[in-house]
Amino acid sequence: MLELLKDIVQCFALLISIFLNTILTYLILTKSNSKMGSYKYIMMYLSLSALCYSVLGMIVRPDLLSYSSCFVVYIKNSTSFFSPTVMIYLMSLICGFYFFFASLISVHFVYRYKALKYGSKWIYFHGKYTFAWFLISPILYINWTLNCIFAFQPNQRSTEFLRPRMERDFGINVDDVTYIIADFYPMHENGQKFPSIGAFISGFNFLLMTTVSLFVIFIFGFKCYYEMTRVVVPGRNYSITQKLLQTQLFRALVFQTLIPLIIMYIPLFILFLFPMLNIDLGFAHYVSISISLYPALDALPSILLIRDYRDSLIKMFKKQENVPMFAPYYVRRGSTTISSARKSHVQLNRVELS
């Protein structure tokens, strides 16, 4: 029953994500305020990435398992469209998005802080420098994807180790699934467990990149909040439009950070950390569901909190009011001249009264 619920929620959430991120991309391209500058490209970058993640998630639909000293990402062969070899690569690609999103949100906060503090004078988010900032996320993405491909390959020992757990808790034959596994204390032929140096190097790589990303988010988040308190102060060299826009962008960014922090970063951090300590958690099914919700929920703050996007979306779906083909001309205040249309209207009323 839980497997069926997970599949339904995953498919539903990913379909909503594809719909919302497509709309958000269109709004960013066509309805963005000119004062947003290069920031709209960073927003569009995140939206398109969430769209790609959702499409890949629909194809793969992976599940997670935290068991003893192992962290496992797996997919049932009966639900996959490709061979097990191809699915291992696809699962590695989808795992790489974890650091892609974390690093891109960090770039968001750095940009917001610099834009608040220096405005358009800060040159390092223009032209070729913007392209350099965009490279950070793909580099971390490639780093973790290759790590999953080369360091987390399954073998016969890991298969036999997972067999009783998969059959007991999920009713699944481990031979019928394709998986990648981070096994920090693999079982050797003599029946003893020993730390895996390769797995621990990958684990520390995961913890380091996650910690650095979260550190940047929190530090520059507080810096942004401090600058925001100065932006809204009367008398500063900001127009009302700029103050409103900066406030909307900052609020949207805060929610775009809280959503993945709660439903993706913290759960995955725990699921990956506890196997390194050889602690069995086993609640990974719920994390699989929450992660699938992330790209669907991530687009909502920008759509709902940024007024230009919200108003444009309302106008798109709102029925247009019937406008008369010949609108009457109104008398300008203080003018003694009455339009011909107004005169005709008055004369017609007089005829009817007589």
TrEMBL record:
Q: A Gene Ontology MF term for this entry? A: G protein-coupled olfactory receptor activity
**Which Pfam family is one of those matched by this entry?**
7TM_GPCR_Str
**What UniProt keywords apply to this chain's record, in alphabetical order?**
Membrane, Receptor, Transmembrane, Transmembrane helix
The transmembrane segments are: 12-29, 41-60, 86-111, 131-152, 197-220, 253-277, 283-306
Any single biological process term in GO? olfactory behavior
Its Gene Ontology cellular component terms are:
plasma membrane
- State the source organism's domain of life: Eukaryota
Q: Which InterPro entries match?
A: 7TM_GPCR_serpentine_rcpt_Str
Question: What is the recorded name of this protein?
Answer: Seven TM Receptor
Protein's organism: Caenorhabditis elegans
This chain is encoded by the gene named str-182
